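Model it.
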Amino acid sequence: MTLDDLIVRISDIYEGLSPQLQRAARYALDNPSDIGLASLRQVARRAAVTPNTLMRLARAVGFDGYSAFREPFQEALRGRGEAYTDRARWLQTLAERDGSPLFGQMAAACIANTEQAFAGNDPAQVQGAARVLAEARRVYVLGMRGAFGLAHYVFYVGRMALPNLVLAQGQIGLHMDEMAAVGPEDAVLALAFSPYVRETVQAVHYATGRGAAVVSVTDSRVSPIATGARHVLLAPTASPQFFPSMCAATAVLEALLAEIVARGDGRTLTRIGDHDRFQDIMGVYWGNERQARPGPGRGGPRP
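Modeled.
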């Protein structure tokens, strides 16, 4: 069984597991490197479960014991170990600089989250998500509270290529009115990370109930916005600071936007060029106070 097969298996049985087994399953899904590298007791301590719970989880997904359960995780790590020594040496140097270990810890978390996101997401899922969003009548971009900044970023950058983007702004008291008319021809790009905002979860369930295709960017395969989603893109949020890290989520969204543009046609390039020339006319950026130029803007679109 490959790691991808095992992840699908754990996700499939998750809802039927006991609360303790769910805790262990979620830890395994969210921290695959730990399962492959750490001992049974270390994993149990970090997951806040007993070693016996992890062994029961292994049997629940079809393995004879925990050692066999670990093998797919270890196999997935073998192809990624070449750069570990150099990266570890760099991080140690960074952590020791000026006696400030937190800076190095933040760097380590950001790198690990981003690496895990790109290693853990199937490119076919990213391509499928881009196709769904590009072909939808309307695309509602949904992210509340801590995720609203990401939602606004996607809306601001993405509208250059997708004029059908709608930013759901429930965070200012509109109570998701923008999504009232969502239907089967529409798509929702939903962003939510633990702790999950209730309104986001409810809006996703409403959209799926009305037949809309949902693309979820979240931190776990068993996240409440992953259930029923057409495509799920994972972005770990581990951080030594008090608030979840958005490094990986930003990288995943940038990859998704790049895929959408890559799938576009001449109309996409025309829209981006029009946006670029409009900003030239308006003198949006410092030192850019000049008249519109003929033809597409040089140097690519500016944000």
